[in-house]
Amino acid sequence: MPLKQKKSEIKYLTASKAVKREKKYCRFKKMGIKYVDYKDGEFLKKFLNDQGKMLPRRITGNSLKFQRKVAQAIKKARQMALLPYVTDLLK
What's the farthest any 2 CA atoms get from each other in the chain? Predict the structure, then answer.
């Protein structure tokens, strides 16, 4: 009997199986978008959190090239007053 108890203890000590997440992809490359328009506020809101901060690449899945373009577009839209700098409950 002691062997069965040790096996069950070992079973609980091992790491549980990690859940496979959906692979992140750059939506710009996938859809063939070459230009990020700063005048399209609704599209740019997808890259902002509720407080109005820009989401990082590791969350959005953008490539470096397009993350830079999105950042520049958001900054231009903020200067043109199309997007707010800071807000409560943007979405």
Answer: 74
Task: Tell me the C-alpha to C-alpha distance, in Å, between residue 60 and each of 45, 51, 56, 76.
Answer: 12, 16, 6, 20
Question: Considering the domain 23-91 in this protein, what is its CATH number?
Answer: 4.10.640.10
Query: Are the C-beta atoms of 44 and 70 separated by less than 8 Å?
Result: yes
pTM over 0.85: no
What's the pLDDT tens digit per position in 30-64?
Answer: 999 999 999 999 999 999 998 999 999 999 999 99
Query: Which candidate, 91, 46, 25, places its Cα nearest to that of 73?
Result: 46
What is d(CA 29, CA 88) in angstroms, rounded to the nearest whole number? 32
